[in-house]
Amino acid sequence: MKKVLSIMIAITALFALVLGGCKENIPVETITLNKTELTMGVGDRETLTATVSPEEATDKTVVWSTGDSSVVSVKDGVVTALKPGQTSVTAASADGSVSAVCKVTVVSVYEQLKALSEKEHDKGTLTIRSVYPEGTLTDKYLLEKTSSGYTVSYTLQEFALIEEQDGGFTIPENEIAEKSGTVKFDQDFKQIETTGDKTDRLPQSLALKGVNFTADAFSDPQFGDGTFSATVKDSAIFLGKGIEGNEMKVSVAYSAQAITNFTLTYQTEACSVEIVYQF
What CATH number should be reported for the domain holding residue 236? Predict the structure, then answer.
């Protein structure tokens, strides 16, 4: 009886082994991505999500690859833009029989800066910070588009000079006077109304007119996660004003859709200057 029982157990085990070995392999039928096109700036990161069906597929492993690894890299669906260009990212099944593709365009920050310099802006802020030995002066301008033109609200700082008996002036350390007001412009940016303290230190717009933004204008360009910075080779090309300074550097915060922050810094004989545009 024990011998028969042992034989039955052995047969049952063998039967189970055979059934297990013949388990049905369910192949992947489709792979879909949450995005089929991406536009990115150098340094940007985007995450692609792959959905594998059917849900009960035996092997749902996704293999990621890029058509040009010099333009973008991809790891576990995370796409990193490396340099301007066009390529694609592919999500494939483990056996390569099924795949989905996302087209990727990486835009040049130089092209974005050029476009920025060719347009007027409906709104934005301009901050000019000048650091002197006696203290720091900060000028702020807020530009807003109106139905009839533009409005610029400003707050400007200057040193509170003390007149001496000999007719000269001294600058007290950190003694700062402030002016503020609002200027309205028409569509052609001609002044039509002024309220508050008068000043001749108003920008004509927040457009960066006359700016050369080709790669030849910069040296030592650095790209980060949505940022760009470089040393400016020729200071006279910036802002269309022939700025005279040295050690001029530019830094930009941007996405593929828009530049959000443009900062220019330089040094003069009297002070260091930081000009920040925010759009």
Answer: 2.50.20
Longest dimension (CA), the chain: 129
**Alpha-carbon distance 103 to 182, whole Å?**
47
Specify the 3-state DSSP secondary structure of 124: strand
pTM of the model: 0.65
Residue 119 lies in a domain: yes
**If residue 229 lies in a helix (H) or strand (E), which one and from where to where?**
strand 227-232
Which sign does the torsion angle of CA 165, 171, 176, 181 carry?
Answer: positive
Q: What are 32's strand-pairing partners? A: 51
Q: What is the chain's percent helix, strand, coil content, to nearest 5?
A: 15, 50, 40
Question: Same domain, yes or no, for 208 and 242?
Answer: yes
Domain, as residue range, for 41: 26-107
Residues 90 and 117 in one domain: no
Per-residue pLDDT of 84-101, as tens digits, reads: 889 999 999 999 999 999
Residue 71 in contact with residue 87, Cβ under 8 Å? yes
State whether the Cα torsion 10-16-22-27 is positive or negative: negative
Q: Is 5 domain-assigned? A: no
Note whether 128 and 262 are same-domain residues.
yes
Total number of domains constituting the chain: 2
pLDDT digits (tens, 9 = 90+) for 160-180: 776 666 666 666 666 788 999
Q: Are 278 and 206 in contact (CB under 8 A)?
A: no
87 bridge partner residues: 104
